[in-house]
What we know:
mainly alpha, globular
Amino acid sequence: MKSNVKSIVRVAIFAALYAVLTLAISPISFGAIQCRLAIIMSFFCVGNRQNSLGYILGTFIANIFSPLGIIDMAVGTLVSTIVATTAYKTKSEIAVFAANVIAVPLLVGAEISCVYSIPFLTNALYIAIGTAISCIAGFAAAKIVKHNKKVYGIIMGEENGNADKKNQKRL
C-alpha cells in the first residue's frame, strides 16, 4: 500500500510540474508558433513509468487551459502518450528527441492548421523549431542533472534521492 501511495504522489507531482511549467509561460506554450518548455520533462521519463504517466496527465491538465479547449486536450494528450511511451519503452534519449520532433509538429501542427486555417507545412515547421529548442534544452538538462546524484535520484524516484547505476548510465 505504501508504495502505491508513493507512486500516485510521484505521478501527481510530475503532472503538476508539467502543468505549472506550461501555464507559467502560456503565451508561448499554445498557438501556431509555440515553444513548450515543459517538453524538457520528457527526458526524465526515460525508463520511468511514474514520470511517464505524470507527463501524460500533466499535458492533459495544462491543455484544459488551452485556447483550443477539448481538441487540444485530446490531441496534446495523444502526442504526450506517444512521447512518454517511447521514453519509457525504448529507454533512449535519442528516441525521445525523435518522438518529440516528429509527433508534436505533425499532430499539433495538423490540429492548429485545421482550427486556424493556417498552411500545415508552415505551421508544422514553426512548431518543429520550438519543439527542437525544448528538446535540446531537455537533453542538456538531463545531462547536467545526471551529475548530481541526489537531484537525479529524486527526479527518477529512487529511495533517498540516490539514483542507481542503471539510471545513471542511461544518460
